[in-house]
Amino acid sequence: MDKAIKPKRFYKSAGVELIDGAWAVFLDGRVVKTPAKAALALPTQALAAAVADEWEAQGETLDLQVMTLTRLANVAIDRTPETRVEMVSEIARYGETDLTCYLAENPSELQARQDAAWRPWRDWAGKTLGVVLVPVYGIVASPQPQASLDAIVAHAETLDDFALTGLAWACSLFGSAVLALALENGAISAEAAFKASLVDEDWQIEQWGEDQEAMAARAGRERDAMALGLWFQALKTTSGV
What is the pTM of this model? Predict the structure, then answer.
């Protein structure tokens, strides 16, 4: 987005306040509204403070694309309550074609890197959540055990709207329900999950070099990944900021 068409900053400071049992984000004493005109209110003080920090960090103009937590909150409040069934199904579909299950037939060095990065998290998903996914070699899709897909659904259905929104976003970002579930459960850091999702991409860069446009897009994905890590951590923080 060109700087000339970004909205101007219209407030001096951002903060949070407890209203009706939720922590709302305020700008100059006025509650922020979502696109659907609901109060931008979060379930924990820590998460509300993190969202407020995004607003506080803006300069003379607002760059909405870098305000990942705000965008996630808008979705969780405005859209997720009405689309939970569809979101859960989409998360399970990532399990059907999970990045961590597709190992290269060759070269052997790439296959070894993939296995080292992904096998521990497939094992974790099986032991922790009963999500046992079968790896394949090559790009031809292979059906995954229905019991494992059902386990993904069962877990996702237990999440509140905010955690479910983060999980769905993480699946899309990583191309993997396994990595997304590990991040949501606090078993892997956002940095490590993002790095694991880049094994194939990093290999291609080593072989063919960097593309400036692709690297700029990657930087945006990394920013979103770090924000997701903060999102899940702040959701679990029930006191303090």
Answer: 0.94
With contact defined as beta carbons under 8 Å apart, do 110 and 130 qualify?
no
CA–CA dist 15, 17 (Å, integer)? 7
What is the biggest distance separating any 2 CA atoms in the chain, rounded to whole angstroms? 59
Helix (H) or strand (E) holding 201: helix 199-208
Q: What is the pLDDT of residues 189-227, one digit of tens each?
A: 999 999 999 999 999 999 999 888 989 999 999 999 999
Q: How many CB atoms lie within 10 A of CB 188?
A: 22
Assess contact for 166 and 232: CB atoms under 8 A: yes
Asked if 161 and 226 count as a contact pair (C-beta separation under 8 A), the reply is no
d(CA 177, CA 83): 18
**DSSP bridge pairs for 68:** none
